[in-house]
Amino acid sequence: MTLGLSISNVTKTWNPDGSSPTPAVRNLTLDVNLGEFVVLLGPSGCGKSSLLYMVAGLEEATSGSITFDGLEITQPSPERSLIFQEAALFPWLSVRDNVGFGLQIKGITQTKRRQKVDDLLKLVGLAGAGDKRPHELSGGMRQRAALARALAMDPKVLLMDEPFAALDIQTRARMQDHLLRIWRETGASVLLVTHSIDEALALADRIIVFTSRPGQIKAEIKIDQPRPRDLHSPEMVDLARRCDALLAEEVNKAFAEQELL
Amino acid sequence: MTDQSLRANNPSTIATGLNLKEHAQTVRRKLVPLAWTCASLGLFVAIWEFSWWQGWANPLLLPPPHIFLSNLPEQFRFFDPTGGRAGALSEGGSIWSVLGVIGWSALRVTLGLSLGFVMSLIVGVAIRYFNIFGKLVLPLVTMMAPISPVAWIPVAVFMFGIGNPPAVFLVFIAIFFVMVLATLSQIDAVPPHFIQLARIMGASKRQIYMQVILPAILPGLFVTLRMNLFAAWMVVLIAEAVGVGSGLGQVTMMARNTFNSSLVFFTMTLIGITGFAFDQALGLIQRKILWWIGPSSIGRI
Questions:
Q1: A78–chain B Cβ distance below 8 A for any pair
Q2: What is the ipTM of this complex?
């Protein structure tokens, strides 16, 4: 039995029986070890989000199998928590109740939730914001609340779908620091989708570069540099160039295809 | 004088001025819309009065406000909460009888609206929750929705006779089918991320409906309810005119039958004011209880 996440030979086709089946992911094989930080890097619409949804158990693979700790993934579970680009906090709940939502679903009483939720709010730097409503928070704070909500369920894998794409650059950098600290403290694996090379370089143990649709693995780049990383160091600049060249090929391919249509 | 010029002319007010300025802004925020409401109404009345003054509007058929509002006690005589018939002027005559008549109409509207809102919510959610129920019921609802409440009047009388029940039933019918369809479209518009998130958190179907879908659709439904409020008022007046024998609708009908145009316009004024008050009340409830969606634009000036 393999611990961690194991994706083997997975293909996902949208609308497989319809008139225009769209392949999203083809024959993809990928293992994510316990505690590993893997970043999926690729052009938009390359199927990396589809892969994330399949790992979350929200979508079914057309063929192939995805297992977690040796067990086939058939449905969503709090141990594989997904974080969206927009925080998707419930506007009718306070920040504290949003963070405690999963615990409340599990049937944990208000008083028992309270301690854990307040600890988590402190962890993500929202200690004073528990009684606020989501619309009173900034984008970065909302995303941190969403992170706390996921962490409340003690996930073994954090699946993140371009979680910082909607934030400004300064907030982004702070959020990445937050995420790295939390990742280290919780020991969860992270599978993060992005199209930002800098984000991938700052965060990843391993970058998986995707081809354009249908998504396949184009290249795998291991980064051993200790964090926090100086993206201007010669090694990192070198890596950035490499990623850039790989991505540019795929973007050009995608554009050429679109022009044919 | 604007705030800015005030500050520029008198720098000493800046320190204490902040609170004052805030206060002044609050007052202005409330007064400006009120002023526009008065202007809107005033313009309408002015045109009417002018037409009368010019002799274009026959005071017997289109009496201007200063005529139909001049002799209130005279008008009050026609209002009897128990539904006194034309000519039976024994009971009416005080402001209380007028309020009583308004109260009866308002009560019928409130009952019909509340019943309609709750029932349509239950049926709408059930259509999505129970697959087979939905397939059986939805076509029927869609076919019933375009039938005018007026066409239901005979049915209401067959089923409930004369009195309050048919009026409440008609208000209910006027909003029920539309609100069921609105509930469905609201459910379908719940952000998919909300439901995916609840599934990841381990929520059951029942929990998803109760804790995610219901709170997500309520504000939008309330807006729809507010839009249908006016339809409900129209229906209750028709019902009262035809089958109940009391209320504002009955007074209007009596005024028509006795060719009392002043009374017609006086009653119309009351209906307008009451409807406006209802809309404001619903708006208040919306802002206080269902605050998580921005206030709707209906009826906001």
A1: yes
A2: 0.90
Which part of chain B has CATH 1.10.3720.10?
Answer: 72-289
Which residue in the set A88, A106, A133 is minimally distant from B197, CB to CB?
Answer: A88
Instruction: For residue A92, give the chain B residue with the closest CA.
Output: B292
Q: Using alpha carbons, list the distances in angstroms from residue A112 to A108, A121, A170.
A: 7, 15, 36
Q: A4-18, A156-170, B242-256: lowest mean pLDDT where?
A: B242-256
- B199, B201, B212 member nearest A58 (Cβ): B199
Output the pTM of the full model.
0.82
Do the Cβ atoms of A185 and A123 come closer than 8 Å? yes
Facing residues of B287 across strands? none
Superfamily of domain A5-79+155-260: P-loop containing nucleotide triphosphate hydrolases (3.40.50.300)
Report pLDDT digits (tens) over B234-289. 999 988 888 777 888 888 888 888 888 888 999 999 999 999 999 989 888 888 88
Which residues of B fall within a CB distance of 8 Å from A91? 292-293
Q: Does domain B72-289 have CATH number 1.10.3720.10?
A: yes
Looking at the partner chain, which of B203, B292, B293 has a beta carbon nearest the beta carbon of A105? Answer: B203
Give contacts of A84 with chain B, Cβ < 8 Å: 193, 197
Instruction: Enumerate residues 162 to 191 of chain B having a beta carbon within 8 A of any beta carbon in chain A.
Output: 191
* Contact: A81, B211; criterion CB under 8 Å: no
Q: How far is CA A91 from CA A96, A225, B169, in A?
A: 12, 40, 35
Task: Return the HEC string of A95-146.
Answer: HHHHHCHHHHHCCCCHHHHHHHHHHHHHHCCCHHHCCCCHHHCCHHHHHHHH
| Least CB–CB distance from A88: residue in B191, B203, B211 | B191
Query: Residue A120 in contact with residue A41, Cβ under 8 Å?
Result: no
